[in-house]
Every structure is written in structure tokens, then in C-alpha cells.
């Protein structure tokens, strides 16, 4: 009822009548004004002012920080503003609801922004009659809701937590404002037998609900709610009897908008930031009941199968291909002007996040996702693109698409323009997959899925399974003969879902539905576990193979199943439906690469392309930037009085291309060893310009000289390798290798190019190009029309690896002509692919061509010139192109590969001191060159010498015995991060024969038979096993080997298994120098120290300890080493700074001294600094084969913990992979290029790739650190060139513990291969003989001098991941309490960073014990990847503390970074509890 006078006589009269109306509309009484002063009002105002000033006075009295007061005022102001705005919106909504038409037509709203956010005028039908019905029925609806709150919801809340046992609703009033239906839309395009309605609801209620928790004297409540959204109502099934409709199903497709006005203690929820969180939590609760895929179904007739209505099969599945994006906005504008984009994709509650790609505005994701579609039309795909930033990600745009469009067109492959951003678009391919009950199409679907390419971890699904969990009967009782609270966990592959909890019953009725994607129904199982709600006690389990559904009628199983590990009569009722995901073949027109006859319409078309005469005449210039010498020092100090150094880098410009080398810090004789390539024509007048600069941070880079050469001189010389003096500078020279590579069409040249490619390595990670691909795109024929019916503006994009080129955009035509040519660098013609995508103006796809480069190798002159059919276009759509492959003819390749003398270089083990000097040409020698730079020089003007530099081949040192040589070779190739010291020698000084090194020096081989190449690899020991005399021919040797005359044992080198482990325990430091001084050094500060440890080329870096001159690190590092007594172990301490870290001291130790002492616990004084010392425990761990030592080592593992999360190794595993026998052939029928990958935990090694053979020979050794020999497993995967698998071998390390000397040397069968496929290997386990383990066992060991954080006890926790994150709390010990009595303790677990109900768990309370035992297990439903991004917060709390002493609640806590936990093997460990940090 309105109190506004519609016809005032004058303005004053209007004002008088309107004012009371406003008061009464808001529910307040009209109080007459009085002119007399009210004493109570004055005192009340004075009291409020005094209360407001009291905090300010107290803050000054107690000398609190001004910032704290300001922060409190800001929070209060934000709360006040948010509260007033919310109340204004609520008053506005209520007043609008009272008289909508008059309120909107009045002048109360000056702008549209004053209207409530939900007010709109949708194109739907008004249903005022329904609103009148609801208005009359609202009091009775309120009575029902009040009954629901008091009798159902309140007991459920009280039973969920001991803290809420005194909760009660003190007031429940749903007010007089009923829910209003703004409009209804009836759909006509829906399935037969149902009525589909979209009901737009708006609830602006004056509801008042008050809650009290008497235990904590807490009162809270709600006064006013707004809820707006679109609810879908489905009336089905339609029946031929009253009431015509069998049931009503209701749900929200999208989350409704919610606003809540809090009262009491919950007023705090109106603080900005907190209010959004609270509303979101309530919306999550609503979504769990009423937002898809959840539905509320109300049956109207008896005997109705409600399960099918509450959980119907999905309408379909949409496979989303997130292909790429283009022209995104640049958000990182300060440095590079690019972005680091990633995409978020949402369909209802299903959310996916793509990988983020660094530094690009045109990301190519190539990822695939699958979403379940429950309702179309209605459900939408929303794509949002963001720029990844460390603090807050920047928004790059969004787009939406109704999935009903995908259902209609089956396939949508388009570019979508991003909204709410100035630029950007995203390319999506959406495929509608129908649900079929036809198993005959399953094989076809599985085969098609093999060809789906995606960078996401999950492969495409072949089927979808809907599981309806109905109920269970006769479950066993809990311990203590109590009724359980059953919950069911359903697992399929790596996905686990939980049902709701049924309280206090042995006959639960869950009535929950779940949906799972199935990759291959013949290989997967359904695992059902019924547990008590503590998820520790299992009430029963069940496993159902998904393959059972394939033979069931209609692919459905609806029956009772007896539970295992349960009661004798315990059973569970499950309804399971399987449907095959099929793509409509009529919507997919795929054509293979065709070279057959053209259609009749091609008679008038040219059969060959007509490129320009200059097509495919380019060559390649390869630039090898080796080093420089005697550069000018630019970083001088003290005004040039003290000479410094430079930070040189090189810029090379040629043919419009610019290359920039890496910066070499503080070096006047830098070595770059970088290679660049550029495709050039042989036109005259092109120059190569090289400039050297000194890199500066604060100013312009200093010039250090330049060099200019004419391209025609390089082409005429073909190859140049020499020193070039720099001009425009006092001194300096640069060593370059320049090679002009002409092109040829002989495919036999490819093998030597690829072999040269495998022998080279450069610091800038470039790989030499093997060939050039020239492509001429001439024209297309009969391209499809656009969806609008117009002819396309045809354009083509050519993609080759990471390189792409675009043609021009033609005028509208179905037969466009481009006549454009392109070229690409090809690194491996046998594996790379050219893709040509045709589109209309690079927006709407028109088709594509996929051309594997290997097909050109079989063509005459490596050339294809013909019409090719387009995939994804019309049947007659074709493109005419010319593709020419040309091999790069390198003189360097042939000179290296056909040399009679072997190309060798020396390789030294870590820490080796002996270095050979390389000869230097007289014409470029300078007296001022240092000895260090002389060691790095290359022989000038020699193709063979540069080849020796780029083609390292391991050879022994002439003066060393054979055993040490083999050890060095294995050291270089198979120790993680071991360096390769490349030293060259004059080839003329090397002997022609290599027989004196017993087969360990491997010459560079020319092309010959595989048998000839095998002879170079065989060792003398292996030849003795073969018993082949020197006079036996190659053919006879092959015959003898085929009769299985194989060696029964490996022929290992004597140095096999002789390495040890250096364990470094970095404990602490004292009395370090303070580098972070203030006020120009007048006030001494502190430092932020960290330590660098250098062992050869291996470097370890500790954590940074903030503002501490006596830091405690307590970190441990391990490295595998050969016992080289001259190896230096260097320690350097630095102070971490923003710009440049300050030096705090160093010291150096010899490995020989550590080996002699075996165990050294000592303080080491820092050198080159005033004061400071470091506390280390250095231990050399020799190896032993006594298995009884293992238990002692494992005991130390369980008692020692380190800040860097490292775990001491228990043993070393040495592997010698000798050879394999009768490996399976490839799918093509060819012999495999056998290779093996060895994986143990997080460490993996790869062998060399052998030549084609079913019985390859590697003879390579590897070593691993083993943490738990009883659990660790070695996996060896065999494949053809790491591509096609040929078998595998799984070797549990525990099997070696039962062998004599912990050694296995024999032939082993391969899994997944032929029955006769075997591998010969030697596996030796050696226990690490640790003196520290013996000291720890006796209660001794290293002691920290610095003060440590007080511990309040220890807690034992197990962490593992088996489909779910599992945390087991075992026990606590040694808990500390200030009370004389014992404690009532429990453990609280939180998965940080979010603190929701899903991430919180707690144990039961253990009474009166300082050493409580819990043995309770908790499971968290999340993936392993998500778990490793979280941190587990463990708090041991006192349950007996009162409400007034909550600060003494926490006894101790520990935070565990799950990113460092090995979930594969699991972790069980005692953790120190620390005092609670404020």
C-alpha cells in the first residue's frame, strides 16, 4: 500500500504529506517533532562521541602505532559504506516491490544506475496471477520454511560440530514480502513428453532470522535478503491422468545473485572483501542443491522413478579445443610490451585453466577439454583470457557462446572476438558428441581418439558413465556397537567422488548421481568404498569392471551388489549407464593427402604451378661465433685509474636479420660458442656487420669494435675459420666460423647431415639445420562458402614447427590466387610436418592441408608440384602448391664424416687440473694474451680443427690407464649436470690406430653396414664371448650370433661401481660481516646470508636467511663423485641484495682430505673477509655390500630432517646396460633404432640411439641415489629412437637385497615385447656406509650452536596419494604444557591457502595424555598436481581450554610444504612442533 499523495495542492503541502509516507514505508512510527531539548538525546549523543574517541585516547596512551589506528578507521569506514549501500539497495528494492509501476515512473530515480541491479524488462510473459497466488500462500510457505529450519537444519548443524551443540534459532520470521516471479518463458523446442519453462524470480524479503550459540555467548542473524536469478522448471513426465504432470524438477542453470544484510556478530561479514567471501560460501551451499548438475525434483504421482528425473543422462558432451589466440592486449608494457596469457574456460561448475605462455600476444595453446552439457539451450561456454602476473593477473577479455549452437551445427571452428578489451580474439574448435548405446561404434571412436592431438595431460574420452548411487542395506556397526554415518566414495581411474553423509543408520539412502569420463571401457574399473564419515573405518567395498556394461542390455546395470569386507548381508544398489561418445560423421568431411587424378572440373585448371625463376635458389649462411680476445676494458674504476673488465656481447646484422649473443660477465677474453643461421639470396651488395658492445645496467652500452664483411666473399670462399681484428677501437679480435651452405636434392646426403647435427652443441641451444623447405602457394579451387552464404576472402597460414607465415587476403572468391613463396629451416625431415590452414580473412576456417616432410624424401628431386585435397572443406576443395626440399651441402659435414683419422678431443673428470694448450697461428699471436685465454684458443684456419671443437668424441688421456679412462667417460655422460671440458688437439699429432686403448676410443665412422659400425663398439671382453676369429667374415659372424651364442654375463670395466657420495650438511654460521648498513655506514645493520657450494661444475645454493649475522640453515646436499683427491670443494657466502649480492667470505677444501677423514664436524673460518665462520659436517660415504648396515641408515633417515626437505640417501645403485636380444620390429616392419630410458624416482637417464638392429649393444653405465631400497623401483623403457615403445623392464630394488653381494648380472625378460625379447644388464646395490648414522643411533651427532626455535613436542604423520591425498595422523610425543595436569588434545589439519570446509579436518579428542595416539586417516579429494601446490598446516590443540583462554588453545604447530613430498612412495615422519607464531 502506498502512502504517497498522488495529487498535492502545492509544494509545501506535498512536502508535509510525503515525509510521513517515507517514514511509514520503512517501517518506522511517525514521531511528532518538539522544540524542547531532550536531555536523554543529549546524553546519548555525548556518550556516542565519547565511545568513538575512546580508542584514539587508548592508542595514544599505550603508544600504539598511528598506522594501526588509521587502518582500523579505514576498515570501519569501509564497513560503514558497504552497510549503508546495502541497506539503501534493500530499501530501494522493497519500495519498488510495493508499487512497481508508480515507483519506476516517478522521478525517484535520476538515472538507470540508481535502479537495483536485477531490475530489467526481459522479453518474457508477465504472470501477475502467479504472484497473487504466491502472495496469498506466503504465510503458509513461511510456516513450512520455519519448520524446516527448526526441525531439520538446526539438528544437522548441532550434530556437525561439538562447538555448535548449543546452537538454536531464537527468531524466525520470513516477513510479509513474498517472492516475485518477474516473468516466464516457455520453450517450444524441447523433447516430447515434457514442458520447459524459464522462470525469472526476484526475492527482496524482509526476512529476520536470529541465531544464538549459548556456549560462546554469540548472537548473529540476518535481516533482509535479495535473491535474483533464472530458474528452469521442467514438467515431466506428461501422463494421461490427473494431475497430467508426473513431477516438477527445478534448478538454476547459472548461479543466482545473492545479497544478505547481516545483524549481530555477523555484522563483521559486511567488511569489504569479507562480504564477498561470505556471500560466496552461502552461494556454494545453494549451488550444492539447486545449481546444475544438482536438481530439486518433487514427484506428484506415486510409483514414479524419481532417480531418472533427478539425475537424467546429460544432453551431450562438448569437446573444446582451445587452439590459439591472436592480437591480445599487451599488459607487461614496462619491459617487453607483451603478455603471459592463459585462458579460463567455464561451463556451469566445470572450470578449466590452460597453461600460461610467456612473452607472447599470439599464444598457441593446442589444448583439449571435455565438458558435460546438461541443458541446451541455456548452458553457456565462457572463456576469459588473463595475463599471468606475480601479484594480480590482468584481464585480457572474455567471450561467451550458447552451447545450443554447438548442438545445432555439431562442429563450430571459429575465431571469437574478445569483449571488454580493445583488441584480441580466440580460436576455438567445439565438437558436439552425442551419447550412443551402440557398442559397435566403440572401436571407431577409440581409433579416432588416437589421432586427437592435445597438450593437456588427459587424453580424449571414448564414453561417459552415469552412476546413480541409490541405497545400501545391513551395513556393519561402528566400533562400540554404534550406528555409522555412511558415506560412499566412487572412484574411476584417477577421479574420486564422495556421496552425501547419511547420519546414524545402517540402511543409508543416498540417492546421489555421479558422471565419469571413460577413456577405454575395456580397461577401467569402478571402485566403491562405503566408509564412516571419519573416512577411516571401511564399512564395505566393491569393484565393478566397466567392461561388464558392454555386454549388458542397453549398456545398463541396475541391480544389487554384495559388499566385500563387510557384513554377510550387506549390499548396495547401484544403477550404472554407459554411453559411447560419437561425433557426427556427416559434419566431418576429412580427406587424405591425395595425389590421384583430378576431377573433371580440373581440365581447365593448370596441372602444375608456375613459380618465378628465382624460386628455391636461396642458400644458408651459418655463423659460428666462437670467442674473442684482448677486448677493451670499459668498466673502469676510480675515474680510470684502476683498470676493470667488460661484459661483452655481440650483435650480428645480415639480410634484415639481427642476432644478439649472450652477455659474458667480466671477461676480456670471452668464449660464446654460439651459432646462427639465416636464409639469403646470392644477390651482390649484401654485407655482414658484427659489432661488440659492453653491457651496462644504468647507461648506454659501450662500443667495443665492429667488423664488416661482404657476403660475396663468404660465398666464394664457401668456408672461413679465422680471427678478425675489430675496427674503430684500439684492440680486440673475434674468432668466427662462416660457412655458405648451397643446397642439393640428393637424399643420400641427409644421413651425414643428421649425424653431424647429433655431434654438435652450442651454448645458445641451436641445432644445425639439415635442409631448406621451399613452398610456393599458387591458388585454390572450390573453397566452401562462408556461413552467411558469401564467398570467402581467402587467406592461408603456413605453420612449420614454431614458425608461421601468412599470405595476403584475396578478394571474395571461391578460387583465389596468391602466387606467393615461403621458405623454412628443417632440422629433421623425417619427423617434421607442414600445415597449411585456409580461412576467410584469418577468421572462419575453410580447410587445411597436412604435409609430412618425409613424403618429399621419396619424390624425384625431393619435389611435389600438384593439386592437394583440403581436409575439413568441401569434397572438391583443392589447393595447388609446389613444395621443394633441398638438403644443405656442408663441406664441414663431409670433411668430418669421411676423415680417415678420428676426430678427437679430451674430456676431463670433474676437478681435473691438466689442460693441453692449443696451437695459435703466428699471424694473430699477441704477447699480451694471458695463459688462461691461450688454453681456450682454437687452431686457426682449419676446417678439421673447428670440427674437432664442435664434434666432441670421448677419448682417453694417453698417459692414464685404461680403467681410469672408462671411469671418465661414464662420469661425463651419466652424472647429472656434469660438465664437458672441450679441449682440442692438432689432428696431425694423433695416431691413425686406436687399438692401444682397448676399444674405448670411438672414431668417427663413415657410412657402412650396421655390422661394421657394431664392430667399433664391441669390447675385447665381448669379442671373447662371441669367439669369432679375425678371419671370420661379416656374414659368418651374423650367422653365429643368430644361433643365440650370447654372453651370459656382462663384461664390465673394473671401475664399475667404484664411485662414492659426498654428503654436505650445512648447519650454521656465526659472526658474519654486516653488509646492509644504514645512514652511509654510521648505523650498523645486518645481512641476508646464503651459501654457494661449488663441486666441479655442480653448484648448490642454500636458502636466504633474512637479517641475521648468525644464521642457521640446517640443509643437506649429496653428490656422486669419483674419488679424485685433487678436486676442490668451494664454499662462498653472500649477502642477498636487490641489485648485486655482497661477498661475505669463502674457503676451499680438497676432496682428498674429506675422503681421508671420512667424517668431519668442524667450524671453518671464512677467508678474504674480516670475520665470520661456517659450521659444516662433511662426510665421504664409501659403499658396502653388507645388507645389515641398511637398517642403521634407514633409522637415521627417520630421525633427521632438513630445512631444504632433502632426505639422506641409503644406497647407490649402479647399472650397466650391456645389450638386448630379439627386440620386436617397428610397426612399419623395419628394425628399431633401439634406445633405453632408465627411470628411478625423479632421476632419469637416456642411452645412445643404436643403429637399426633387433639385438642392439649399448655397454653404458649409470648410477642412482636410492633413498629406500625396500620401496624404490627401477624402470627401464625401451623404444625406437625414444618414439615407438619396444618393451620395458621393472626391477624392484628390494630384489637385490636377497642377492649375493647385492648383485644381479643376467638376462632379463622384457614386458610388452616378444616372448624371447631380453636384456642383459648388471645391477649392483651398495649401501652407503655412514659414520653419522652410527653416531645418530648412539644419540650423538652434530649440535647446533645458534639458538633454535623452542619445540613443544613432535607429531608423526604419513602422507601419500592414491587417487586422493591421504593424511594419517599417528601420534604425538613429548608435548609441552605449563599446566600441572595432562592435556585433552586433538589435531587440526588445514590445506592452505584456502580454509574452506573441504580443506579442514580434525581428529577425535584424546583425554589426559602428553603422548596421545590417534591413528586416524583423512582423505582430500583433489589431484596430485593440486596437492603439490598446497601447504598442510598441522595444529595440536588443547580441547580443555575455556572460551576465555583461546590464546592458549594451540600447543604446537608445523606447516608441511606438499610440493617437496614424494607422493609415489609416501612419507612417514616425525615433525617438530613449534610454538604458535603471532
Which key features would you list for this structure?
1478 residues; alpha+beta; eight-stranded antiparallel β-sheet; 18% helix
Chain-wise SSE layout:
Blueprint: H1 11-25, H2 39-61, H3 66-98, H4 100-105, H5 128-160, E1 167-173, E2 180-187, E3 195-213, E4 218-235, E5 247-252, E6 257-264, H6 274-290, E7 296-299, H7 306-310, E8 316-326, E9 341-347, E10 350-353, E11 364-373, E12 380-387, E13 394-402, H8 403-409, E14 411-417, E15 425-436, H9 442-450, E16 463-473, E17 486-492, E18 495-498, E19 509-518, E20 525-532, E21 538-545, H10 547-550, E22 556-562, E23 571-583, E24 619-629, E25 635-637, E26 642-645, E27 648-654, E28 657-660, E29 671-680, E30 687-694, E31 702-710, H11 711-717, E32 719-725, E33 733-741, E34 743-744, H12 750-759, E35 771-781, E36 794-800, E37 803-806, E38 817-826, E39 833-840, E40 844-852, H13 854-857, E41 863-869, E42 878-888, H14 891-897, E43 905-906, H15 931-936, H16 943-950, E44 954-955, H17 962-974, E45 983-984, H18 1010-1017, H19 1020-1026, H20 1034-1042, E46 1060-1070, E47 1076-1078, E48 1083-1086, E49 1089-1095, E50 1098-1101, E51 1112-1121, E52 1128-1135, E53 1142-1150, H21 1151-1157, E54 1159-1165, E55 1173-1181, E56 1183-1184, H22 1190-1199, E57 1211-1221, E58 1234-1240, ...
Parallel strand pairs: 43-44
Antiparallel strand pairs: 1-3, 2-3, 3-4, 4-5, 4-6, 5-7, 8-11, 8-15, 9-10, 9-12, 12-13, 14-15, 15-23, 16-19, 16-23, 17-18, 17-20, 20-21, 22-23, 24-29, 24-33, 25-26, 27-28, 27-30, 30-31, 32-33, 34-42, 35-38, 35-42, 36-37, 36-39, 39-40, 41-42, 43-45, 46-51, 46-55, 47-48, 49-50, 49-52, 52-53, ...
Helix pairs in contact: 12-14, 14-16, 22-24
